[in-house]
Design goal:
It is built from 27 helices and 16 strands. It is an alpha/beta fold and 673 residues long. The protein is elongated and about 140 Å long.
Length: 673
Amino acid sequence: MNENSISKGANPSNRPNGRKPRIISWIFYILMFGLCMFMFYPTDKEKEHKNLSYTQFTAYVENDNVAKLTIYDDNKAKALVRSESFPLVFGSVDVGKERNGEIMVQIPSVEEFGKYVATVNEQRKANNLSPIDVTYEKSHDYWILILSNVLPFILLILFFVWMGRGMGAAAGGIFGVGKARAQLFDKEKKDKVTFKDVAGLYGAKQEVEEIVAFLKNPKKYTDLGGKIPKGALLVGPPGTGKTLLAKAVAGEADVPFFSMSGSDFVEMFVGVGASRVRDLFRQAKEKAPAIVFIDEIDAIGRARGKNVMTGGNDERESTLNQLLTEMDGFGTNSGVIILAATNRADVLDAALLRAGRFDRQIHVELPDLQERKEIFLVHLKPIKLDNTVDVDFLAKQTPGFSGADIANVCNEAALIAARNGHKKVGKQDFMDAVDRIIGGLERKTKIMTPEEKRSIAYHEAGHATISWMLEHANPLVKVTIVPRGAALGAAWYLPEERQLTNKEHLLDELCSLLGGRAAEQIFLDQTSTGALNDLERATKQAYSMVAFYGMSDKLKDVSFYDSTGRYEYGFTKPYSEATAEVIDKESAAIIAEQMQRAREILTTNEEGHHQLAELLIEREVITSEDVERILGPRQWKSRGDSILDENAAALAAAEPKKKRAPRKKEEEETSNN
């Protein structure tokens, strides 16, 4: 959705581009500048008269250079100089005429200066001279006094008001810190996201269709006494389209859509998060029927009371308490529905997931084969393709990719084609893009010695040989010894799309992971650091088999996995030290057994392994066709292809609206050297 309008909480002025606040800012700056000029620039009276020191002024008075004196109540005195004294006082007659023959001085006080003038006139009488004419007047610079004393306070008040409005418009500020900064995608907008814009996600779409139907025609449900769920939680891995699906629900229902991130509620000020929750729900009720969408709700929805280092008055917990209260506060059929998204549903508070709040969880899984094909078709529309691009092939080569990953593949392929000077994007550009995203950028300038290159080739050939000979290992796609990212070599596999994983599957994967280290030990008689990633993954998998899956001989049917996260901040393990020792021994035994198995397979297929290693040294990249030519056809059909073919056939025969079971998360396995 390209156009959106910001809610009142985000921009109270609601003016485009903030033009009026800019005008107010300029007016404030002009007033400040004018005050400074007014206070420091001399007045007209000071510019027209010559200012003298008190000593010079009294000297002119006593020497009969002054004909008349005017004394002001603001401790200033003005004297009219005799015309014959212009050259002495002003330097020339012209200057004296220009200044009207007047001089000014700052006097100590009116009383003291009056006594001084009376003394001078008595002396003049004694000398038979006419007295100096003296008059007393009041100063008329009342505006100067008022502005110099009052205007600074007025400007100071205006400054704080301006700062408060500016901060309020930008981020809640002094006067609007508790306002919700939610984006409002109103129903009057032309560009809307609908279900047509969301490829795949068949199961999730069917889950939210009930929400759309209720918002379009609530009377149909309320007449029968039905109640629509207050909230729906979208759960799934990152990049699977949870936010896009929520926008599509609002677009299909044609209702206002308030979007806000969970982190927007959290501030350093106590009580701000709870205030923003209240303001968000108030705005939603005013525009009901409406949808409130909170993205990454785990930022405020984590289970309370887990962290023993903080008290119960934590700001995040206060925000969660207010959210729970608001979800109970409005009526079931008030027309306000809450959608939230997270990829960590296991850490959410139980009160948030109970019936009456987030009644249902909608799982947004990684796309399967057919869904990946549809996603590719959406993102390939703006790209110029040549006749070598096959969408079915791209969908098969990207298992485990999310919608965001597929969008990245399409964009990366276009960039690679442009970098190579192609007029259109071809199949090879897409394959390079997939390799770039999975393994990283090729480091062709990486310098390796012949010994290092040979070691890497034998290591990767060990992975390829063992995975080819094992029934349950993932089918090999490609092996390379070209450095990518932090890896010096890599092997790509096509994982099987299955719902359950048996012990035989895990053991074959373990054996394949240890094939690189085994090849180094057998054929090169060395042990290098290149197998670090393989050993890390193998160790974690072995411990998972023992501690989580109950697949060991001494700890059968026992699992210490905690799906609730209650032991997240615990100080003790959920098993004894004796059990921990058993877990360590069983895990080490599984790894040792599979390492011995890998050594036996490599010894049996020594000639084929050497041919693969030498071919890797020569060409740097080999594919499954090269492995098949050297080691012969696999004894088992590539189950990845068979599963994909079965899925495609099942999809073709299925009814268009039939609910599809969600696929298990696929993972592209990369063995890094």
